[in-house]
Every structure is written in structure tokens, then in C-alpha cells.
Amino acid sequence: MKKLNGYLLAGVALLTFTVVSCEDFLDKDPISNYSNSTLGVDNNTDTLKYTTAEQAEALLATCYSNFRGELFQLDYFVNGDMQSDDAYAGASGTEFSQFDNFSIDATNKNVERDWKYLYKMVTDCNTVIVNVPKITDQALTDARKKEIVAEASFIRAWAYFDLVRLYGDVPLVLDVVTTITADNVAEVYPLLYPKRDSKELVYDQIITDLNTALDGVPVTAPNKGYVTKGAVNALLARVYATRQPIDYTKVNDYCDAVINGGYSLLSNYDYLWDFQHENSSEAIFEIQYDGNWNTGTGNWAVSMFLGTGWKKFNTPSNDLVAAFDAENDVIRKNSSIKFEDVTGSWTDANWPTSTYPFIYKIRDEASTSNIILMRLADFILLKAEALNELGLPGADTLVNQIRGRVNLPSVSPTTKEQMRLIIEKERRLELAFEGIRWFDLLRTGRAITVMENVRGGNGELLYAGKLQPYKLLWPIPQEQRDLNSMLTQNPGY
User: Fold this and answer.
1) CATH no. for residue 51?
2) pTM, full prediction
3) Is a pLDDT exceeding 80 seen at residue 46?
């Protein structure tokens, strides 16, 4: 696959989906703003004239660049870990305390910005999927054109998967926007002011996009930052493990495709996080960083979670530390959590300042370390879950394979229910602080039960009565509803 160039492109966004930074608010002008002349843009006609192979590669590079922004350096882990029993909010701020206490409202700035970030991903991918097939430059072969559309389809599927898990029913926008005129108002207006589509339609489109991706992406790539068949199979496994009712037959099949896709577990668990073994045999999809801030490839996530200069986000919970200790899981605990003396820096309601915990899986202070979004161990355990739910043998063998790497004794449950809880615990300890725990609890229907029983450092119940069923979805951002009257609100908000 031709290596992508690191082009930085102007955002091509819908009225309600324009994103520049986490502090920006939407422009109420409903016409998209195209301004980058290197793309062959005609500002007089609002028509994008993509004509070259170079422009096609640049458009795809923009899709990939979404993985190197704030959404995946901070919010991905806030959403998947801070909302769960694995982490407290840590750093102060109304938005984050609302996540920690299940008191999110429709004006929460994180809820708003993630909507915009994710729809920017969608818009960037739509631009590729709609326009690249029309390019006639002989330098862009049909095979490469198919790959580009396939890679963009995977990225769009990822964005919609996060949207539907966070917000439920969301607008399903699959086209690009041009200037609205008297002749095309009926066609363009729904793109500018879309209604919410059912989550079933959204899941259907996610699967359609992933099937397109599976057909077109390569088996291997220059590094794990590009979409390959392994990454597509992995996302399909996650999707089928989340869409209700869970299709465990398909989960098992796609996990098999991942497991048989040429990946292997690293011999040492800590190699995953020591930033000396990046793009390893265990990694499936991994955001690439080299510390170059001029090209947008510096990773500032470490400064969000580790360090004593200020109180960091996602403080590991007493409940998680207790779970590691109860299992005598020393190796994974030490790779996942680092304790520091922060006496005199700040106080904390959950931890003594003399032994204050930090996430330790993103630890390279030079800001060059990659972030793993998918790795083999996740799908070995997900296959174990599928086998157990299907009543098939072998779940214990897979779980013990994961436990063996970190020198833990084998398990041998006698019932499906026992195995189910063992897998849930094993996924928690293996995948802590990888943005997965909250979504595991949601998809298995365990979120309320588990959170009702989370205890603090003094044994007190922290969340009893705070998590009602309607709070399992986020509200639709109020700012988006103010701009678009077609957007209804989730019940309860």
C-alpha cells in the first residue's frame, strides 16, 4: 500500500458538525467553507474538483488524522474508563465530575465536543467515499482507489460505532454538502439539518461499511497505523458483541479471523507499554506518533494521565486496585498503575497523597509513544466469551492463555455463570485503561449492577442510586438541538 503523506486539510463539515478545537463553537452559516487551494477547490461554485491521485491520498490522510486528535488522546479514555469502575475523574472540572457521578446534562462541553469530533470523522470519510471514485487520474489505479474507499469506510464505521454507543439514535449522514439553492433545497436541506435515525439503521450501515472495508483493505501495511483486514475483523467482532441481541456466532467467527490473522501475544505484558516494542505482533490497530508537533504527530496523552505537575485525569480507582490485589495480579497492576508521593501538590477524597495512583499504560514523557486501540488479547478473551455463551468448550483454555502470560494460575469453573464472571474480571484486569471497560459493562447489561456495588477506599458505596437506566446513553448536545430543530432529545434529559 502506498504510504500516506501527512497532509493537513481544511475540514469539510456540515453545519452542525464543524470542528476546529475543543473550544470552538459552531458557525451558524449553513454553507460549508472550503478554503484549502491545494485540494483543487473552486470557492466560486462550492464544487470540489478532486482530480489527482495526490489529492485522493491527502483526503484519506485527513481521515486518519482524526485518530491523532483530542478525541483519542483524552476523551476516548474518559468515555471508556472514567465512566466505569476503573477510574475517578481526578482533575477538576464540571464536565468530568458529571462523568464521574453520572450527572451528565445536555450542556456538558465534552458531550458536545465528542459529537463534533465524531461527525468530523464522518464528514472527512464521506468526502473520500463520494469523491475518490470519480477521480480519473491514471496515477490512481483502480486497486488503490478501492483501497482508499475501503480504509475510509472503516474509519466512518468506527465513528458511527462510537456515536451509536454514546448517543443511541443519531443522524446517518452519508453524503457531502454543497451550496443550497432553489433547485436543490429538498436534497441538501436534510444533510444540513438531519434528523436522528434509529440505531438499527446505524448499525446496518456500520456493518455495510465494514464489509466494504474487508473487501478492499490489504492484509498487511507499513505499520499498525493503517487499516488492514485484521483491524476490520476486530471491529466487526466488537460490533456484533455490542449490537443487541448479541450475535455470538458472528463474534466467534470474527474473533477467529483475528486470531488466525498472523498476530501473536508478546511474551512480556509490559512490552506493550514500554514504547520499545511498538507495532508489535500483538497490536492490530495502533495510532502512530513520533513527537513532531509541527506535523500533528506528537502525543500529549501522557501529560493528561501521568505526572505530578497538576492533578491528572482518570485517577485509578480503589475498586480496581483491590481487584488486582485480590487476584494477586502483580504484573498487570504494575504495568497499569504507578504510585507517586504527591504530598503538597493537591488533596484527594479517594487516595492518600503519599501513595497516589496514576495510569501507567501511556508513559513516554517524550510524547512519541503510540496508542494501541486494538490488540490480540482483547479478541482472545472476546472469543472466550462467545464460546461460553454459545455453550461450546474452550473458553477456559483461552482465559488461561491470557492469565499464563502474567503468571496467574489457571481457572476451571464448572458453570457458564461462573465462567461469565471470570471472563468479565479477566477483561477488566487485562484491558484496564484501554477505553474498553465501560462499553463492556454496557453491552453485557452489567453496568448498573456493577456500578451499584463499587466501593471506595473506606468501603463506602460510591454510586448507589446514581445510575438510572436512561443515563446509560448520553444526552443529545443542547447546542446541536438549538441549531437543528430536527434533533430530538434522549428520554430523561
Assistant:
1) 1.25.40.390
2) 0.91
3) no
